[in-house]
TrEMBL record:
Residues 1-21 form the signal peptide. Residues 318-688 form the tRNA-guanine(15) transglycosylase-like domain. The keyword Transcription does not apply. GO terms for molecular function: metal ion binding; tRNA-guanosine(34) queuine transglycosylase activity. Residues 34-107 form the Thioredoxin domain. One of its GO terms (biological process) is tRNA modification. The chain crosses the membrane at residues 191-215. PANTHER family: PTHR43468, TRNA-GUANOSINE(34) QUEUINE TRANSGLYCOSYLASE. Keywords: Glycosyltransferase, Membrane, Metal-binding, Signal, Transferase, Transmembrane, Transmembrane helix, tRNA processing. It comes from Micractinium conductrix. Residues 275-296 are annotated as: Disordered. This is Queuine tRNA-ribosyltransferase.
C-alpha cells in the first residue's frame, strides 16, 4: 500500500509538471490585430464573447503574404465588434482536424457554437488570393455569414462535441510540449522521461488493484453448513461445502481419511462457553423485527399422511429408533439421506441405491427450478413420477444453494481468514447474489446469469410443484464469522421467512410435511430462541441448520446443549433432521443426542474420487498395494460391488479412469451408510448407545 501511495504521488507530480509545461509553453495572445491561434490555447483564445473571423492557411502558400495585409486591415475595420484570427495549418494540425478541413486554406466565421465557412479546402477558386478582397470578407464578416448554413455538432469546432474532438486532437501537441518542458526547461534526461512515462500505467493499474482490495476487504462474509468430517491429527475438523449441493463436500475433503470421533478432543471441549467464532468484519445489522406470533397459526393437527413413531428410546442416551411414515413409504430412523441434487445421485441410478437400502433422497430445489424448471417437473407429474421413484423424497427451499454458491463454504471461509484473503468468494458473492431484502433474495443463475427472485412464497410454490414428501421453508444463511447483532437480525429474518413459508404451505398442504430449520449459529441464546419460536408453530418436523461451528468439537458442543430443549419444546415426538452432516464419524454421536436423519453427498462424492468407506476407515482403491488384491473389496459387505468384483479389478478401473468405477464405489458407500444406520438402530434397541 505504501508503495502504491508513493507511486501515486509520483504520478501526480508528473501530471502537474506536464500541466505547468503545457500552460507555460503557450503565450497569451492579444485580441487586437490578427491573433495567431494554436492547438493548445484555441478554446481560451476564442472565448471572448464576440464573433471571430478566422483564416486558416499554409505558410507554404504563395498568397499568404498578400492575405496577411488583407486580414490585418480587416482586424482594424472590425475591431472591437469582432476578432480576427489566423491558424497556420502546417503547424497546428490539431485545429485542422477540429475544423474537419480537407485542404489548407479556409476562412471561417465563428459565432457562439456555430461555424460558417466563407471558403474552404478544395474550393480553391473561392479561396484564391485575388478573389479574397477585403471588401468581400468585410461583407461576409458583418452580414454575409447569415446567408451561409451553419455547421453544428461535431462539425463546428466551438461546439461541445468540437471541443471534445479538440481535446483529443491536441494530445500530441500537449505531449510534445510536456516533453520539451521536461527536457529543455527541467533538464531531465530522455531515460528519466521514458521511465516516468512507463510509471503512469503501472501506477494507474496498482491504484486500481488497491482500490478493489480496499473495497472487497470491507464486504461481508457468509457461508452455510454442509459438512463432512476430515479429521486431522490436531483434532476433528468439519469441512463444509457446497458447490453444488447442501452436502457436497470438496474433492480434497473427499480424499481425507475419516476417523471415529476424537474422544480426547471432545473431552477437552468447553463445557459451557460457546466456541469462539472470530469476527472478520463489521456489517451493519438489520433492525430486529419480530416474526408473527404463534397465535396467527392454527394448532398442529397430526397428519394422516405423515407420522413419526418412536419405537424405542435408549436407556443410555437420547438416541431413539423410529419410523417416519410418508405417502411414499417408510423411513427408518436413524436414517441416512442420500443427496440427489439434480433429481439423481451422482453416478448411481435410483433403483441401484434403493437396492442398497436407500429410503429417503434429498433433491435441491435451486437446481431443479433452474433446470429443467419446476413447471416441467410438475408437467411430468411431480418429482416421483419424473424420477420414477417410489420411495420418499425431501426438497430444500433453494435458499441454501443461493447463498452457498455465492458465498462459498465454511472451509473456504476459514481458510481465507488464515490466508488473509477471500477474493474468490467475494467475487462469487458479488456476481451471484444481487440483493437480500425482506421480500426475499435476488440472485443470478449460475447457468446463464438470469436474475431471479426467490421468496418464501415462491420457494414453497416451487416445492409444491416438485411434490416431495417433505419440504423446507426459506431461511437466510448467517455467516460463521459474524457479529452477534448481525446473527440476531439474520435469525429474525429467517423466522419471518419461515413463518411466511408455513402460511403458504398451510394454504395448500397437499400431502407434504414441512420441517422448520433451527438457526442461531453458535449462540445458545439464539438457538434456544429459535427452538422456542419454531416449536410453537405447526411444523411437522425440525431440521438443524445454519452455522454449526468450524469442526466436530463445535458441532457436538452445540448439539449436546440444544437437542434436549428441542425435544422438550416439541411435545409429541417429531423427526429431527441434521442438514448436511452424515459422515460416519459424526453420526453415532449425533444419534446419541436424539437426531433422526442425516443428509450428505459425502458417500457418493468420495466414491467418485476412488475411496470406499469401511469400518476401519477410508480405503483408497487407487493404492498400488491393491493391484493384485484378488479378493472382495470389503470383507463381509453384501453390496452389489463387493459381491461382484474384486478389489484388484476396482483398482484397475480407477487407475484406468473408467467411469463405471465411480458408480461401483458409490454403490458400496451408499450401502455402507445404510448398513451403519441399521447397525446403529440395533445398538439403540439394545441400549448400547
Ligand atoms: Zn460393499
Amino acid at each position: 500500500m505504501t508503495c502504491c501511495l508513493l507511486l501515486q504521488l509520483g504520478c501526480c507530480l508528473l501530471v502537474l509538471g506536464s500541466a505547468l509545461a503545457a500552460r507555460s509553453s503557450g503565450r497569451k495572445a492579444t485580441v487586437t490585430g490578427v491573433v495567431a491561434l494554436t492547438d493548445l490555447e484555441f478554446d481560451s483564445q476564442v472565448d471572448t464573447g464576440k464573433p471571430w473571423l478566422i483564416n486558416i492557411y499554409s505558410h507554404y502558400c504563395p498568397v499568404t503574404q498578400e492575405l496577411e495585409s488583407t486580414f490585418e486591415g480587416l482586424a482594424e475595420a472590425l475591431h472591437p465588434d469582432m476578432s480576427v484570427g489566423k491558424i497556420d495549418g502546417t503547424s497546428q494540425s490539431g485545429l485542422i482536424t477540429r475544423f474537419q478541413m480537407k485542404g489548407f486554406h479556409g476562412v471561417y466565421h465563428l459565432n457562439g457554437t456555430e461555424t460558417r465557412a466563407f471558403c474552404e479546402g478544395r474550393d480553391a477558386n473561392a479561396c484564391e488570393g485575388k478573389t479574397l478582397s477585403q471588401q468581400k470578407l468585410l461583407n461576409f464578416a458583418k452580414e454575409g455569414w447569415k446567408a451561409v448554413p451553419p455547421r453544428t455538432g461535431c462539425a463546428s469546432p466551438v461546439s461541445r462535441c468540437g471541443r471534445a474532438v479538440g481535446n483529443v486532437a491536441k494530445l500530441p501537441a500537449k505531449a510534445k510540449a510536456t516533453y520539451f518542458f521536461l527536457h529543455d526547461v527541467r533538464q531531465f534526461s530522455d531515460l528519466t522521461i521514458f521511465a516516468g512515462l512507463l510509471a503512469v500505467p503501472v501506477v494507474v493499474g496498482l491504484s486500481f488493484i488497491c482500490l478493489l482490495d480496499m473495497y472487497y476487504s470491507r464486504r461481508p462474509l457468509a457461508h452455510r453448513q454442509c459438512r463432512l468430517a476430515a479429521p486431522k491429527s490436531a483434532g476433528p475438523t468439519l469441512l463444509r461445502c457446497c458447490s453444488t449441493s447442501r452436502a457436497e463436500a470438496s474433492a480434497d475433503a473427499a480424499a481425507t481419511p475419516v476417523q471415529q470421533p476424537d474422544a480426547a478432543a471432545l473431552a477437552a471441549a468447553p463445557s459451557a462457553a460457546a466456541p469462539a467464532a472470530p469476527v472478520r468484519k463489521r456489517r451493519k445489522a438489520d433492525p430486529v423485527t419480530p416474526p408473527p406470533p404463534a397465535s396467527e397459526f392454527p394448532q398442529y393437527v397430526p397428519r394422516d399422511f405423515f407420522r413419526f413413531d418412536v419405537l424405542h428410546t435408549s436407556k443410555k442416551s437420547g438416541a431413539r429408533v423410529g419410523r417416519i411414515h410418508t405417502p411414499h413409504g417408510v423411513i427408518d430412523t436413524p436414517g441416512f439421506v442420500a443427496v440427489a441434487t439434480n433429481a439423481a445421485l451422482k453416478a448411481v441410478d435410483g433403483p441401484w441405491a434403493d437396492a442398497e437400502g436407500q429410503q429417503l433422497m434429498f433433491c435441491n430445489t435451486y437446481h431443479l427450478i433452474l433446470h429443467p424448471g419446476a413447471d416441467v417437473v410438475a408437467a411430468a407429474g411431480g418429482l416421483h413420477a419424473f424420477m420414477n421413484r417410489q420411495r420418499p423424497l425431501i426438497t430444500d427451499s433453494g435458499g441454501f444453494q443461493v447463498f452457498s454458491l455465492a458465498y462459498g463454504t465454511v472451509h473456504e471461509e476459514v481458510n481465507s481468514l488464515k490466508r488473509g484473503s477471500g477474493k474468490s468468494r467475494h467475487k462469487q458473492e458479488h456476481n451471484l447474489v444481487a440483493k437480500v431484502s425482506e421480500e426475499g433474495v435476488t440472485f443470478r443463475s449460475y447457468r446463464d446469469g438470469t436474475k431471479m427472485l426467490l421468496t418464501p412464497e415462491s420457494s414453497v410454490e416451487a416445492q409444491k410443484q416438485l411434490g416431495a414428501d417433505i419440504i423446507i421453508p426459506l431461511d437466510e444463511l448467517p455467516p460463521y464469522h459474524t457479529e452477534p447483532a448481525v446473527l440476531e437480525a439474520s435469525l429474525a429474518k429467517s423466522h419471518r421467512w419461515m413463518a411466511r413459508s408455513l402460511k403458504t404451505h398451510l394454504s395448500d398442504v397437499r400431502q407434504q410435511a414441512m420441517y422448520a430449520v433451527v438457526h442461531g449459529g453458535l449462540s445458545l441464546e439464539l438457538r434456544h430462541k429459535s427452538i422456542d419460536y419454531l416449536t410453537s408453530l405447526p411444523f411437522d418436523g425440525f431440521a438443524v441448520g445454519g452455522s454449526l461451528g468450524k469442526d466436530r468439537v463445535d458441532l457436538f458442543w452445540l448439539l449436546e446443549r440444544i437437542m434436549p430443549r428441542l425435544h422438550e419444546r416439541m411435545g409429541a415426538p417429531k423427526p429431527v433432521h441434521i442438514l448436511g452432516i452424515a459422515d460416519p464419524a459424526s453420526v453415532p454421536q449425533l444419534v446419541a443426542y436424539g437426531c433422526d436423519t442425516f443428509d450428505s453427498c459425502y458417500p457418493t462424492r468420495v466414491g467418485r474420487h476412488g475411496t470406499m468407506l469401511t469400518k476401519e476407515g477410508p480405503l483408497r482403491v487407487i493404492s498400488g498395494k491393491y493391484k493384485t488384491a484378488f479378493r472382495p473389496p470389503v470383507e463381509g459387505c453384501t453390496c452389489h460391488t463387493c459381491s461382484t468384483h474384486s478389489l484388484a479389478y476396482l483398482h484397475h478401473l480407477v487407475k484406468a479412469h473408467e467411469p463405471v468405477a465411480a458408480t461401483l464405489l458409490a454403490i458400496h458407500n451408499v450401502h455402507f451408510m445404510n448398513a451403519q444406520m441399521a447397525e446403529l438402530r440395533q445398538q439403540i434397541l439394545n441400549d448400547e448407545i
